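During data preparation, we tokenized the protein backbone, and the record follows.
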Amino acid sequence: MPIRTITFDWGDTLAANYGMPYLKTQKRAFARLASDLTGLGCTVPAGWIEGINAEIEVEWARSISPIANPQHEEIDMRAMFARWLGQAGAIEAKPHAVQGALDRCLTTLTDTVIPFSESGPTLSLLRARGYRIGILSHTPWPGDACRAWFERHGLAGFISFYSLSCDIGWIKPNPRHFQHALDQAGCAAEEILHVGDHPLRDIQGAKAAGFRTCLRHTERIYPDEQIAACQPDGEIIRLREVLELAQRL
């Protein structure tokens, strides 16, 4: 059965992302948010930025731990942002001005992710060959901010649908995440090729959902034994190799 849809992980597959949570970037983003909110007449409490950074670090570590989070539930960062804004008294400020400040903060956070130079050309060629393209990614940042990243970097025009853990509430390899993508793909599971770098979340999770799989190799992120055990349908080093693999499968 031929491949009709190709889903891509985002970080470390289409863009450089290793190192999350980005503490230096977060300090800068939330310092700017604090300044913007103060300018709007809000009262940012002492230790607000430090508290936010500490909370993100704790929640991120919990969310990716198979022991602390065996069901792979996603962080509700949208609710966290609402609480942080409430702590700063943003409810008293003009909503559109607060949204503008929040958008600037989220742009700084998401632009830490840097697209690979071959991502745009590869996605363009895949679309030209008739494949539907989806983003099937684990990301705790609010979904609107993630989709805006694809717009800013000129990739959104190639994307048919997004399946983001922040919108779903579940992280790969939880089957709900793959089912969400399948519901939008417009084809059978075996007609989908999922491309990702994580041996458990991307490869084993996608295989369990009935997708075909492609491992995007990264250097020194995952143990060799995990890589060897995941057994994808194909393996690539350069993203453009997906074109040949999809045609062969």
Summary: The mean pLDDT is 95. The longest helix spans residues 23-39.
